[in-house]
Amino acid sequence: MKKFRIFSLILCLALAFGLASPAASALSAPTLDGQAALVVDLDSGRFLYALNAEQQRAPASLTKIMSVLLALEAVDRGDVSLNDVVTAQQDCREGLGEDSSTAGIIPGVQLSLRELLYCAMVGSANEACNVIGSYLSGSVSAFVDRMNQRASQLGCVNTHFVNTNGLPAEEHYSTAYDLYLITMEAMKHPLFMEMANTIEYQPESRYVNDGKVIHNSNALISQYSDYNAYGSYLYEGASGIKTGYTRAAGYCLISTAQRGDVRALVIIMGCNGYYNAGIEEFRNFSDSITLYNWVFDNFAYRELLSASEPMEQVQIRLAEGDGEITLYPQQAMTALLPADFDTENMEIRVSVYEDKLVAPLEAGTVLGEAQVFFNGDDYGTVRLVNRGAVELARGEFIRERLRQIFSNGWVITLLIILLLLAGGYIALVTRYRRLRRKHLQERKRRAQLRAQQERGE
């Protein structure tokens, strides 16, 4: 059983974040070229900024994240091995145009599953995804069905895949939010991030990309990217994940970056490419840089609750003394918050574990929890503990045990039965003694009479 108490504290922090709008503070929203965006604090999963995050859009090669995820999950299950030799099927290049992104894989070529995954992630090879899908599910269409099933399992309600690679197709769409769900699942696999951060990949097979090195197209991390002719998009602290482009989708990018202890993920979709003063610009990279700078310049970790801050007074049963102790946070609670954070609307909800408030207690026993809310948004929970040990009062313990014993109906019933039995036993013993005494007296009287008769009296 829990006891709930709600109280508000005025501290120097307050904020509400939402999926549909930028962070609700005095911060100015960043100016973007893209049509949809999402910025996520990787440590808490909280959204720092969102623009049309649930708008269905063509995902282009961001689709490949799902294809690679399914392959990595199959490896983890033991269904396949990264060293499996896979033969490219006859229809592996079906639907690919002349300008399609490929690794030059043609039907009949044999290569390892590991090499196919690197081709898909580093080289964004469309045919590699088809080969992976056919190998794992028996056909590309069956694999696409599995992609949609997995998306649904991950909570993607605005995603539908038609192919393995993101080539333009009707009814092939996703959202920034759904792609966030898929990407976070993929990032749980170390090999995924290893591939996403590979700047150059040398194919094992001479039949892949004519044996030439494959360069990562993510201009935030690769100076060799075709989008990074002047190195202007290289961003310190950036890593993975995947670029994407089709005419329908525009320029897209999912990436992460870290500065100090702040780690963020940025998804940008529907950006343009321009020629400006003879220099080609790709706004998926510049928008990502804008969003990262916006986060790193305006957000920092702030302490919401101190470990030394008293949270609740509670009464401990069977404790020595008055039994009253104070609960404190087990550790400090921090959150990534904007520098201009408001000072109102912080709410702390304390829950006390009433069933645990009984002596003896060791120091540091978890006796409750505190949840922090800003404008209705849950910022996390911290456990509440006692700082010092609580000793058991022996006399009170005995009295309590007796009260517990005699408060049970069956105990009272048993005592009544025992008392009745005892009373009956006493009555029987008393009656027996009375009858025996009377019997002895009668025998004595008869003996006296016989003696008198013998004396002739």
What does this entry look like structurally?
This protein has 457 residues and is an alpha+beta fold. Helices cover 31% and strands 25% of the residues. The protein has helices spanning 64-77, 113-121, 126-137, 140-153, 176-186, 190-196, 283-298, 394-406, 409-454, and strands spanning 2-8, 36-41, 47-51, 85-87, 110-112, 200-201, 214-215, 238-246, 250-259, 262-271, 273-276, 279-282, 299-305, 312-315, 324-329, 333-338, 346-353, 366-374, 377-386. A six-stranded antiparallel beta sheet has the order 1-17-18-19-15-14, with no helix packed on it. A five-stranded antiparallel beta sheet has the order 3-2-10-9-8, sandwiched between helices. Strand 9 (250-259) and strand 10 (262-271) form a beta hairpin. Helix 1 (64-77) packs parallel to helix 3, helix 1 runs parallel beside helix 5 (176-186) and helix 2 (113-121) runs antiparallel to helix 3 (126-137). The longest helix has 46 residues, at 409-454. The radius of gyration is 39 Å and the shape is elongated. It starts with a strand and ends with a helix. Residues 1-24 have low confidence and may be disordered.
